[in-house]
Amino acid sequence: MGYQLELRHFHYFLAVAEELHYRKAAERLFISQPGLSRQIKQMEEILEVELFVRNKKKVALTTAGEYLKGELQFLLNHLELTKKQLTLVNEGNFGEVRIGFLGSAMQNVIPDLLIRLKEKFPQIKTSLEELSNTAQLEAVIKDSLDIGFVRLARVPAGLFIKPVFEDTFSLVLPKDHTVDSVNFKGIGQVAKENFILFAQDYSPLYYDTIMSICEDAGFTPKVSHKSVHAQTIFKLVENNLGIAIVPTSLQYGFQMNVKFIALSHIPQRAVLSVIWKEDNRNPALRHCIALLLNE
């Protein structure tokens, strides 16, 4: 058989693997459905493996197909990065660092990093994307991000994790709440209140830490609302729909009718860490990490 595997096969396969629907994948690729089916069948013949299980009701990936999907997502992300970096280097730049972050990192760590990069390495471009811890982890593993700013206790093998900022927590209350910094004795004073927290799947470590703060005070918080955005949490608190506990640095940059009481005497701290992949070959990344870690 004279067929050869080509880059188009990879793009066709990924479209079907992500859509799990031939018609939708064909529309996404702007080709006919029969043509797409032929290309996938040809790819399976070249590789001598079955990539999809097909029946009248659904399309599903085989075990081999699942493996190939992950590998191709990594390879194609890296190829796109290489093309982009090549263009930047050709224009006289050092390349680009793609940065993922949680909202709290934008209060201090990221602005400081961007200023220092601009001063010391003006030829390095940066791009920013706000994502959850899990999404950043997956993006760094798949090479669609160079670094991420996360709140995680550990990362999988093959990644580095280094703390870059330690923050206290603060209690967030409506401006007219009877508890204030003068009469505040401990978190147990608000044990019967509704709590508004960052969603557990957005930041599991944060969520577990807030649980531990409350449990140390002898109660389990009644969680009425969850969000992934600090502004939403503060707005809910402002409207007397509950109270919150957040990293102290999040109080800056918002003008709302809420007040913050620092929980400086508790042992828990909000630790922000940077993660990156050990085998990331982006030359601009080394300068970025060195600035972050003062190396």
Radius of gyration: 24 Å
Task: Calculate the mean pLDDT score and round it.
Answer: 90
Give helix and strand order, one letter per element, not per position: HHHEEHEHEHEEEEHEHEEEH
Helix content: 25-40%
Sheet bearing the most strands, described? Answer: 5 strands, mixed
Tally of separate helices: 9
Structural class: alpha/beta
- What is the overall shape? globular
Distance between the termini: 56 Å
What is the C-level CATH assignment of the largest domain?
Alpha Beta
Percent in strands: 15-25%
What's the name of the CATH homologous superfamily of the largest domain? Answer: Periplasmic binding protein-like II
CATH topology of the largest domain: D-Maltodextrin-Binding Protein, domain 2
- CATH architecture descriptor of the largest domain: 3-Layer(aba) Sandwich
Low-confidence stretches: none
Q: How many beta-strand runs?
A: 12
Number of domains: 3
Strand order of the largest sheet: 4-3-5-12-6
Family: Belongs to the LysR transcriptional regulatory family.
Domain HTH lysR-type: 5-62
Keywords: DNA-binding, Transcription, Transcription regulation
Pfam families: HTH_1, LysR_substrate
